[in-house]
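Researcher: Here's the sequence for the chain we discussed earlier.
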Amino acid sequence: MRLDLLFFIGYDFDDELPWHSTISRTRQLFPESVFEEVFTKVLSMCIEKGMVSGHTQAIDSAPIKANASMDTLELKVPEEDLQAHLRKIRVFSSMDKETPHRKSKDDKSDRGQRIVTASKKELGAIQSRNKKWSRDQDQRPGSGNKGCKYTSNKTHYSPTDPDARISVKPGKARKLNYLSQLSVDTASHVITDIRAYHADGKDNQQLPDIVERLHKRLWQQGLFWENCVADTGYSSGENYAYLEQKGLRSFIPPHGTYKGGPDGFIYNREEDYSLYQSV
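Model: Thanks. This is the structure I predict for it:
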């Protein structure tokens, strides 16, 4: 369907294309190390052609839809009730009508993913949110989902894809996703690093791991990284201090609620200290 891609890989209009399973199925047979080696090789080729400068890297994230349905979500249970819960759902598969049980035969989750780890305070907040969610959904024009449930990563898990997490972006539906963290060299927009994370994590929590991995990759390629560019989602005092410690200049805007420090401080650049002067 993409003529530019066909041209790039040397196919004409009437040439027979490889069968889709060459990509969609065969790739599942290779370990992660193979993909990492291929990625590093392609990046090296781009560097040899002068397409990567290294000094300025832009970082951003994007959700990746998991191959799992929200309808298959299972309810987590407290640790002391886990065995009783498992016995119940094995014998009475449709006993709990409020929480539909999965239709798949294999539960790929481990014990830790099936146990509630949320505190009483967090569970109380989820209960309040569930009431509001149900009320708001029932009031939608033409809504047929009476008494619908609010699902949370604290209380639910996917048995078919336990590493997937419920997440949502403004204006989008709640889905089971992963979160892709992508780094791009600003010279020619070449991707220099990419990795998937759990979708319930925040960008600013993942920045140190991204920087460590990317810094090592660029250093191995003989490139010097100077500037880190990212959006507000990566902003935090800890991250600013961390990037400064790594010798990187950060171009990350603070959150909209940030108002700056108190007035009256004078910075002495030569001796690196601030002096407060009352107004």
